[in-house]
Amino acid sequence: MTTTKSNPLRGAPGTAFARLRGVPDPSAIPDRDPSRRRLRLRNRSRLTPWLYSGAALLLLITFTYIPVANMIGYSFTNWDGLSRDREFVGLDNYIKVFTDPRYWQVFLVSLYYFVASFVQIAIALYFATILSFNVRFKNFFKGVLFFPYLLNGVAVGFVFLYLFQPGGTLDTVLGILGVQDPPHWLGDPNIANYSLASTSVWRFTGLTFVLFLGAIQSIPGELYEAAEIDGANRWQQFRFIIAPGIKRIISLSFILAISGSLSVFEIPFVMTNGANGTSTFVIKTIQTAFNFQRVGLASAMAVVLLAIVLIVTWIQRRIVPDEDVNLS
Amino acid sequence: MKRSLAVSGKYVTLVVATFVVLVPLVVVLFASFKTTGEYGATGPLQPPSNWLNFENFVDAFTSGRMALGFWNTGFILLFSIIGTILIGTMTAYALDRFDFRGKRLVFFLFLAATLVPGVTTQVATFQIVKGLGLVNTPWSAIILYMGTDIISIYIFVQFMQSIPKSLDEAALVDGASRFTIYRKIILPLLAPAIATVVIIKGIGIYNEFYVPFLYMPSRDLSVISTALFNFKGPYGAHWETIAAGTMIVIIPTVIVFLALQRWIYNGVTAGATK
């Protein structure tokens, strides 16, 4: 490993030769009278990594860490986001988030998307499995399944707004199949969230699918061959080779499912604007902060959301420890 | 017998899935070519009578100010991607090639930040962006896209680990400065990782709605997502125009996807799991 310290050429001039000749390295001895030039050079080499990572760190701290700290601060105040003065209100905002049904109900909406993500994982797992074996037009099917993930969220919103319209595509298809009296897919509060959650499944299954496909392909092919010689059928191959082989990515998908279902925004915002009981946590937070100027309350909501995501991630790390966080 | 049943079952599910994916898109394509009268008179599954009726597209493109949307998206895309690549590769260079006090802390800061979903902090981030005077300028989006991009730093670090360190050492012995090594050795060798980042970042920015919606409410700054979103008000009933606008947004994605398929798959897998 190259390091600035162990590399003799980076130090003050002369030290490398001194070391070669067996003379004690002067930089190792506390310097009584360092020349200016040497000091500057040594400082610079110590500074170099900070020069390279400085911009990223500055942005990271400014746009992630300071906001988190500020947000926690705001959440104990009644700040409106505009005026200079704000009052400390203690836990009032948090009490409101947990007791006022208008606020805690948005958690229930997340449950629709959470359940939907199980459907999404199941569908993705099924298609990733069959498409990792011999299938005709494999690349076509792969492309079709993955493609929705690449689409613009607003465009997807409009496509499904059109699909779910009364007398629209879905109703027409159902009419062909003999369904006479279709419900109001987006207008009926009992159904709207199912419609939106299934739109979300349509949009995101491709991502889960590609992740699974990649993981399955990294399983060595000999394993299947060996299993086939032993007379294992497809289901047994799935059960004993594929499923254990991609365990990690499946567990990752569940974590993404939880944080994903808590931070749903685009689809309900574009399609219903949160009407008919489809408002999600993020929609509600934005409305509270920017339409109703209650930044303090919105911050408390965001802190609660963040806390849930962190707890869930922590639990997952406990249950399925990450074998290779090989960054350092 | 049982085997062939399983095989046909497999294809049946694949074909059904293909329909589920494509039908919602194809009907919008149909609608985009229909005249207003035709749209009212025909069912959604019926193809348009004239496939060369581009009136809706022209209407959507001009009155929806989509040229402006593409221009603004392109501007933001260009600067955020350049910024992301420079910042990302330099940070990865510092983290992979130097040993310095505080390195573990820096790693920790980047890792911990991935646990904070961007949507949760927007309320507070907004105040900072406002304080910097960037609200309603394209720079708000650019700086946020650069600043929140931890994934690309990971991709660069991962990739840099596979570039032998002996290359750096040889160059150092030859008298190259640290910056020359970064510029002449690391940056060119990182090209495949840069391509990956450009693709996933590019798709992400093209599709982003939340940031431009919140930070650039001015109509003159609308990007492709917000331009399309603005169809919701005035065109509420004109589905032919909305359909055409939707198609205008989708078509570039189709072209890019068909051209770069393999790169996109790899990029997305690299970006999502890290």
From TrEMBL, chain B:
Q: How does the protein's chain sit in the membrane according to the entry?
A: Multi-pass membrane protein
Identify the main location: membrane
The cross-references to Gene3D superfamilies, in alphabetical order and at most eight, read: MetI-like
- Name of the protein this chain belongs to: Carbohydrate ABC transporter permease
Q: Name the PROSITE patterns for this protein.
A: ABC_TM1 (PS50928)
A Pfam family: BPD_transp_1
Which keywords are on file for this protein?
Cell membrane, Membrane, Transmembrane, Transmembrane helix, Transport
What compartments host this protein? Cell membrane
- Membrane-spanning parts: 12-33, 70-93, 105-126, 138-157, 185-206, 241-260
Per the record, the similarity remark reads: Belongs to the binding-protein-dependent transport system permease family.
Q: Which residues form the ABC transmembrane type-1 domain?
A: 70-260
For biological process, the GO terms are:
transmembrane transport
Any one Gene Ontology cellular component term annotated for this protein: plasma membrane
